[in-house]
Design goal:
Blueprint lengths: L1 E7 L2 H16 L3 E7 L10 H6 L7 E2 L7 H19 L3 E5 L3 H12 L4 E4 L11 H11 L3 E4 L2 H9 L7 E3 L3 H10 L7 H5 L8 E4 L3 H4 L2 H17 L3 E4 L2 H9 L10 E4 L4 H9 L3 E4 L2 H9 L4 E3 L7 H5 L3 E3 L6 H12 L14 H10 L1
Parallel strand pairs: 1-2, 1-4, 2-3, 4-5, 5-6, 6-7, 8-9, 8-11, 9-10, 11-12, 12-13
Helix pairs in contact: 1-7, 1-16, 3-4, 4-5, 7-13, 10-15
The structure holds uridine-5'-diphosphate.
Length: 362
């Protein structure tokens, strides 16, 4: 039996890990121990995903959150190392690009335990993003680099990574979306609770530091969303805790139009229902950009660049730097609703988790 120690801590990681963890549970040669760093800890940012997606409860809950990046990562290194030393796993498995990803990979590699990185090879080429630093460093010290796309594979090859370490398996988020997307109805559920009509609302999420931590940019986004909701169609915005804190401290909550429906973060199944039946997704999230596409909805991404370049090329996603003026942002949203992008299949065939398990078993 090979022991896999999975280190995770943030919302998108619970969603990505859900498909892999349920398949590890079915494997006769793999055993999994989950370590939750505590990076995301609210019930609606963490517990709900374990419950809804049928994941095993983490054996370790480290409760590490808050503080600056160095402090958070440093505390994770200390605590994850203790767990790894006592569990002595054969493989450490990490996902994506958060501080929990880097901490898990760094601890393991220094203890000479091979690291498997799911969602390897993504690059924004913007080193100001903490996520970009976490990705590059994690990829550099990983043994198995599981890439979601052709472009991610190319990035690694360009950086000199050996072809034999790269496994282009497809995107685990696509696996999850396929499992749950078919089940959601255009009626009832959260749509009824929020009195939203299918294809008559825009779904928004904002949480990247470059948008939330810059006062001018956050004000611009709020203004553009209010103006869009007043003149085009209502907006529903599940507000990330970080963004909520910033909106409160800048006194922006009162200025937001009543047609922008601010709600707490929602569970994954509610999110899929909101995504699938929206007319447009506006986001700065990596995962939500792709999920819009998985559910056939166009997307405007409020960022300068994206790691998911294939969706921009195919016309599913339009980048809109949030430093643009309000009218430009609003016009981009209006045009995006009417788009008919071309059909593409860049994320594999929904068997990414299966491919990952096959490789780790071997
Ligand atoms: N998500 C969710 N509820 C929300 C907002 C997002 O379940 O209120 C899900 C979303 O469907 C996607 C993931 O969280 O699967 C994306 O996470 P996030 O935007 O926090 O991180 P990123 O993808 O940018 O790393």
């Amino acid at each position: 039996m090979k022991k896999i120690l999975t280190v995770l801590g943030a919302r998108p990681q619970f969603i990505k890990a859900s498909v892999v963890s349920t398949q590890i549970a079915d494997s006769s040669s793999l055993d999994e121990v989950i370590v939750h760093t505590g990076q995301h800890f609210d019930a609606n940012m963490s517990d709900v995903f374990f419950e809804e997606l049928g994941m095993r409860t983490p054996k370790y809950q480290l409760n590490i959150n808050g503080g600056a990046h160095g402090e958070m990562t440093g505390r994770m290194l200390i605590e994850v190392e203790k767990v790894v030393l006592s569990e002595r796993p054969d493989i450490v498995l990490v996902y994506g690009d958060t501080n929990s990803t880097l901490a898990g990979a760094l601890v393991a590699s220094k203890l000479h335990i091979p690291v498997a990185h799911v969602e390897a090879g993504l690059r924004s080429r913007n080193l100001k993003m903490p996520e970009e630093i976490n990705r590059i460093l994690t990829d550099r010290i990983s043994t198995w680099l599981f890439t979601p796309t052709e472009s991610a594979t190319k990035n690694l090859l360009q950086e000199g990574v050996s072809e034999t370490a790269i496994y282009q398996v497809g995107d685990v988020m696509y696996d999850v979306a396929l499992q749950h997307g078919a089940k959601v109805s255009p009626h009832g559920g959260i749509l009824e609770q929020l009195r939203l009509n299918p294809k008559q609302y825009i779904l928004v999420t904002i949480h990247r530091a470059e948008n939330t931590d810059n006062d001018t940019v956050l004000r611009r986004i709020v203004e553009a969303l209010s103006s869009t909701a007043n003149s085009i169609m209502p907006i529903v915005w599940p507000v990330h805790p970080r963004t909520k804190g910033r909106l409160e401290s800048l006194g922006l909550l009162e200025s937001i139009s009543a047609d922008v429906l601010l709600v707490d973060p929602v569970g994954y199944l509610d999110m899929v229902q909101l995504e699938k039946h929206s007319s447009l997704v506006v986001t700065d999230s990596g995962g939500v950009q792709k999920e819009a596409f998985f559910h056939g909805v166009p997307c405007v991404t409020l960022r300068e660049e994206t790691e998911w370049v294939e969706l921009v090329e195919a016309g599913w996603n339009q980048l809109m730097p949030p430093t643009s003026d309000v009218e430009t942002i609003r016009t981009a949203m209006r045009h995006a609703i009417k788009k008919s992008p071309i059909v593409v299949f860049p994320y594999g065939n929904g068997s990414a988790a299966h491919e990952i398990i096959k490789e780790l078993e071997a």
